[in-house]
């Protein structure tokens, strides 16, 4: 199977800070890749570069045969195909849940209101929140907001879904509901790149784990091999720390 995402020699600086150092890896269509590592390792910056929220300083990112930094048209085109779920939901507080989900398809894809509305209902059933369709974000718990954010992302019918620590801002009792939705998406052949500290999710769902530290990819492997026998000392220390809590 050919690569759907290819990252070649990517470097990124914040002023003098070298946050991504010669990053190389690829993701096949339908593959689920979990990116993990300590805070400050460059994970979130990497995932934000995949849809142009952060610009790279050198290298190439190719998604669905499009070099996304070649020109502005390439970036705009790929943003329609790459969905992103953020740590802090980013829902519009003044819009209902229905309006939050239908806004982008109607504005960006010029979908008719009724078609967008019916699909939004279907998506809310998928994330088990159909009863909240006319509620506002302020009426929802953190976990419910994140499930709405996932439904909003799916409304654009993306080919790739990027998750940037989707459970880190949630109360422990709501994390399971969000992970349950993500596990369902993993069964539906979406291409997923997920930055997370949820090692149980990585073990159960991912095809591959990419471990980063200090802006570099230290190792990547199947979840079985990564968790049972990490190759690097740095990964061993990380796993000991995170799995002991």
Describe the structure.
- The protein is an alpha/beta fold and 245 residues long.
- The chain has one domain: Rossmann fold.
- It is 38% helix and 26% strand.
- The chain has a six-stranded mixed sheet, with helices on both faces. The protein has a four-stranded antiparallel sheet with strand order 2-1-4-5, with helices on one face.
- Strand 9 and strand 10 form a beta hairpin.
- Helix 3 packs across helix 4, helix 4 crosses helix 5 and helix 5 runs parallel beside helix 6.
- The radius of gyration is 18 Å and the shape is globular.
- The termini are far apart.
- The relative contact order is 0.17.
- Most probably involved, with PEB1, in a binding-protein-dependent transport system for an amino acid. Probably responsible for energy coupling to the transport system.
- This is Probable ABC transporter ATP-binding protein PEB1C.
- One of its GO terms (molecular function) is ABC-type amino acid transporter activity.
**H/E element order:** EEEHEEHEHHHEHEHEEHH
Rounded mean pLDDT is 92
Count the beta strands: 10
Side by side, the strands of the main sheet go 6-7-8-3-9-10
Radius of gyration: 18 Å
CATH topology: Rossmann fold
- Distance between the ends: 38 Å
- Beta-strand share of residues: 25-35%
- Dominant shape: globular
CATH homologous superfamily heading: P-loop containing nucleotide triphosphate hydrolases
**Low-confidence spans: pLDDT under 50, at least 5 residues?**
none
Q: Briefly, what CATH class?
A: Alpha Beta
SS content category: alpha/beta
